[in-house]
Amino acid sequence: MGNPVTATRETWGPIAQGMALTLKHFTQMIVARDKTSVTVQYPEERREQYPRTRWRHALTRHEDGLEKCIGCSLCAGACPARCIYVEAAENSDERRFSPGERFAARYEINMLRCIFCGYCQEACPTGAITLRKDFELADHHRADFLYTKQMLLEPTPAPGAAG
Amino acid sequence: MNDSKLVNVTINGVPLQVPKGERIIESARRAGIDIPYFCYHPRLSMENGANCRMCLVEMAMPRTGPDGTVTLAKHPKPQTACSLPADEGMVVETETEAIVKARRGVLEFLLINHPLDCPVCDRGGECPLQNNTLHYGAGASRYIEAKRHYPKAYPLSEHVVLDRERCIQCARCTRFTQDISGDAQLDFLKRGADTQIGTFNAAAFSSLFSGNTIEICPVGALTSRDYRFRARPWDLATQKSICTECSNGCSIKLDHRDGLVLRVNGRVNEAVNEEWTCDRGKFGLPASISGERLTAPLLRDGDRFREVTWDVALGVVAEKLQAAGKQAAVLAGSKLANEDLYALQALCRGGLGSVRYDYRMGTQSSEARDAAAMLFGPNPAPTGIAGLEASPWTLVVGSDLAVEHPIVFLRLRKSWRFGKSKALEMVSSSAPANTHVGAFAWSSVRYADRGLPESLRSACSLLLAEMPGLTATPEIRAWAATGTPPADDTASRRMATALSTGPGTILVGEGALSGPDWREVLVALGHLAGLTGSTGSVNRLVSGCNDRGAEALGFGDWQPGTAGILAGAASGATPALWIAGADPVTQYHDPQVAIAALEQASFVVVSDIKLTATARMADVVLPSCSVAERDGTLTNVEGRVQRFWKAFEPRGSASPDWLIAARLLQRLGKPSVWFGWQDVLADMRSHVAAFGGVSLDALEKDGAMLVAPQVVD
Question: ipTM of the assembly?
Answer without folding.
Answer: 0.85
